[in-house]
Amino acid sequence: MTQKLPFGPVMIDVAGLTLTAEEKEKINHPNTGAIILFSRNYQDPQQVSALITEIRAARQGDILIAVDQEGGRVQRFQNGFTRLPPAAFFAEHPELALDAGWLMAAELLSVGVDFSFAPVLDIDCGVSEVIGNRSFATDQHLATQLASDFRAGMNEAGMAATGKHFPGHGAVALDSHLTLPVDERDLASIRAKDLLPFKELIMEGLEGIMPAHVVYPNIAPEAAGFSPFWLQEILRDELGFDGVIFSDDLSMEGAASVGDFPARAKLAIAAGCDMVLVCNNPAAATQVLESLPVTENPKREQRLSAMKGRINTTTLPELQQLSYWQHLSQTFREIANA
Question: Which residues pair with 236 in a beta bridge?
C-alpha cells in the first residue's frame, strides 16, 4: 500500500482549465502542498469543480486548494458566482460583512475550494493603489471589527481565514507585484495602527497569515516575508500566532531582491513561513520543488490541516436552493448593479 503524502511546503498553480501530464507529476511531488487557482482556471462552477477533482486525484495524499476571492477587483471566480463588493463597501454597510464572508466561503466550498486568501487586514492610509478599497477602512478599529465579522462568516460556512498582508501594506504607494515598497515608519507607529487587526483576529483564532513583500528599514533589514524579526519575534512570540504563515508570491518583484527562486523559498522558510507560493512561473515552481529538502514536519502538517475546508457537504445547486443564499445573493446582485 502506497504511503499517503503529507502536505509539502510549496503552493503552485496550473495553466488552464484541465491538467497536463506534467502538472499531475508536480502535484504529486512530495514538496507540493497546495494549488492556487486563478481566473484562467475558471470557466464556470461545473468546470472548476471537475478541475479540483482532477487535482485531488493526482495527489497521493493531502493537498489544499486556494484562490483569491476577496470581492471587488480581486474575485477570480465570477460567472456563476455572486459578485461581491470591495471590502471598503462594508464601512458604510457593516451589517453585511458577516453575510459576505459566509456567501463567499459557502460558494467556494461547494465547488471544492478549501480556502480563499481573505480577509485583507491592511489599513487604508490613502496612498496605496494596490490595497485601496481592498481594505475595510481607514480607521483601524472599524477595519478590525469588519474583518472580524467577515472572518466569522467564513468560519460559519466552514472555511478557515488568512489575514494579509502582515504587518501592513496600506501605508506604501508602490505595488509589491512590480517593485519592493519601503515603509519608513517606526515600530511604535505600526503597533499603534496596522498591527491592531492582526492582534485582534489572532486572539479570535485566525488560522492563516500572509506577510507583505514590504521592507520596514527602521525596524528590520529584510522584507517582512523574509524577516525572522517580523515572523518570529513579533508574529509568533509577541502576538502568539500559531497558525499557517504563507509567503506572498515569490514571483513578485518585491521578492526578487533576495536572490533566485530556490534562495527566496529557503529564506522565507528559514524566516518562519510554513508554505511558500510560486505562481505564474512553472519553471520556477519546478526549481523550488526540486531544491527544497523533503522533510517531515508535524507542526507544519498540523497547521496546514487546519486550513482544510468543510467541502462537498453542499453542492452549488443545493446551496442555491437555500433561502439564506437566495436572499444574500439577491442583495449583493442589487448592490453590484446599483
Answer: none
